[in-house]
C-alpha cells in the first residue's frame, strides 16, 4: 500500500485530481468510481478546476457510484445519485448518460444489487475507485464485519454511521435511512487502482488500523492491503496515529517523478 502524507486536504485533492487527469489522458473513456461524503470534495473541486483550465478532458469519461441509500424517493437531494450528479457529473460538464449507479428505490433490491455488480463488469471494470473512510473503518457502506469477498448487496447501517451522516439530513438521525446498497469489498477490490483520501483527526484511528493493523473484517478498509495498487492519501491529522509516518514521508519524497501517485 502506498501512503502519501500531505499538509492539508486541498493538496491531497490536487494530487489525486492530477492522477485522474493522467488516467484520462491515456484512457479517455476511463470508468471513474466516485465516493460521497465530505472527504472527496477537494478532489472534485481540483478536477473541475483542471477541466476548466483545459488541463484535463473528461468528456468521454464514465462515472460510477460506490453506494446508495435504500428507500429515499427518487430525486431526494441526499440520495447519493443526486449528490454525485450535483458534485461530480455536472461540474465536469457530463450528463446522466455517462453515469451509472445502483437503484436504491427499486422494488427488487437484491435484483438491483446483482444488476449493478454485473453492469460494472460489463462496463470493463472500474479504472480508478475513489474512497473515503468511515470513523469505524468502513469503505462504501461496508460496515465492520462485512465479508472481505462481498459483492454489491444491501447492508444495514450501524448507529455510528447514521449519527455521522445525520448532518446531511438536517441533523435528524430519524431521517437517515437504515438500509443501503453498497459495492461489496470484493467488488471494490476489482478496481484497477484504489485511492482513499482521509482527512482530520477523527479518521486517525481508522487510518492507522487500515494501514498498519491486520487485515480484518472488523476494519473493512484494511482489505486495501490485499490490493496490488492501493494509495492512501492522508493529511497530517489523519496520519497522526501512523507509527510509520516518517518512513511513508521518506518513501514518497524519494519516489521517481515518473511513478506518479
Ligand atoms: C459515508 C459514505 C462513505 C464515506 C463516509 C465518510 O458512509 N458511504 O463512502 O467514505 O461516509 O464520509 P466523510 O468523508 O464525510 O467523513
Automatic annotation (TrEMBL):
Allosterically activated by N-acetylglucosamine 6-phosphate (GlcNAc6P). GO terms for cellular component: cytoplasm. GO terms for biological process: carbohydrate metabolic process; glucosamine catabolic process; N-acetylglucosamine catabolic process; N-acetylneuraminate catabolic process. GO terms for molecular function: glucosamine-6-phosphate deaminase activity; identical protein binding. It catalyses: alpha-D-glucosamine 6-phosphate + H2O = beta-D-fructose 6-phosphate + NH4(+). The active site is at 67 (proton acceptor), 136 (for ring-opening step), 138 (proton acceptor), 143 (for ring-opening step). Coiled coil: none annotated. Pathway: Amino-sugar metabolism; N-acetylneuraminate degradation; D-fructose 6-phosphate from N-acetylneuraminate: step 5/5. CDD domains: GlcN6P_deaminase. It holds the Pfam family Glucosamine_iso. It comes from the Bacteria. Keywords: Allosteric enzyme, Carbohydrate metabolism, Hydrolase. InterPro entries: Glc/Gal-6P_isomerase (IPR006148), Glucosamine6P_isomerase (IPR004547), Glucosamine6P_isomerase_CS (IPR018321), NagB/RpiA_transferase-like (IPR037171). Residues 13-226 form the Glucosamine/galactosamine-6-phosphate isomerase domain. The record marks 146, 153, 155-156 as: Part of the allosteric site. It is an enzyme of class 3 (hydrolase). SUPFAM superfamilies: NagB/RpiA/CoA transferase-like. Catalyzes the reversible isomerization-deamination of glucosamine 6-phosphate (GlcN6P) to form fructose 6-phosphate (Fru6P) and ammonium ion. Belongs to the glucosamine/galactosamine-6-phosphate isomerase family. NagB subfamily. This is Glucosamine-6-phosphate deaminase. It comes from Streptomyces agglomeratus.
Amino acid at each position: 500500500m502506498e501512503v502519501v502524507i500531505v499538509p492539508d486536504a486541498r493538496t491531497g485533492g490536487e494530487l489525486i485530481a492530477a492522477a485522474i487527469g493522467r488516467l484520462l489522458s491515456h484512457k479517455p473513456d476511463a470508468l471513474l468510481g466516485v465516493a460521497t461524503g465530505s472527504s472527496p470534495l477537494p478532489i472534485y473541486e481540483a478536477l473541475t478546476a483542471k477541466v476548466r483550465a483545459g488541463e484535463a478532458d473528461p468528456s468521454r469519461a464514465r462515472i460510477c457510484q460506490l453506494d446508495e441509500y435504500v428507500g429515499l424517493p427518487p430525486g431526494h437531494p441526499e440520495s447519493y445519485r443526486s449528490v454525485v450528479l450535483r458534485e461530480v457529473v455536472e461540474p465536469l460538464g457530463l450528463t446522466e448518460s455517462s453515469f451509472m449507479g445502483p437503484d436504491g428505490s427499486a422494488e427488487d433490491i437484491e435484483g438491483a444489487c446483482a444488476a449493478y455488480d454485473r453492469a460494472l463488469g460489463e462496463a470493463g471494470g472500474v479504472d480508478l475507485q475513489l474512497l473515503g473512510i468511515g470513523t469505524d473503518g468502513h469503505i462504501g457502506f461496508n460496515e465492520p464485519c462485512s465479508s472481505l469477498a462481498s459483492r454489491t448487496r444491501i447492508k444495514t447501517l450501524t448507529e455510528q454511521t447514521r449519527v455521522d451522516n445525520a448532518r446531511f439530513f438536517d441533523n435528524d438521525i430519524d431521517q437517515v435511512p437504515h438500509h443501503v446498497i453498497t459495492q461489496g469489498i470484493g467488488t471494490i477490490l476489482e478496481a484497477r487502482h484504489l485511492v482513499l483520501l482521509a482527512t482530520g483527526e477523527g479518521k486517525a484511528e481508522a487510518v492507522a488500523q487500515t494501514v498498519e493493523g491486520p487485515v480484518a473484517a472488523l476494519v473493512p478498509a484494511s482489505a486495501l492491503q490485499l490490493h496490488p495498487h492501493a494509495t492512501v492519501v492522508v493529511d497530517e491529522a489523519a496520519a497522526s496515529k501512523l507509527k510509520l509516518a516518517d518512513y511513508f514521508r521518506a518513501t514518497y519524497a524519494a519516489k521517481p517523478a515518473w511513478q506518479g501517485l
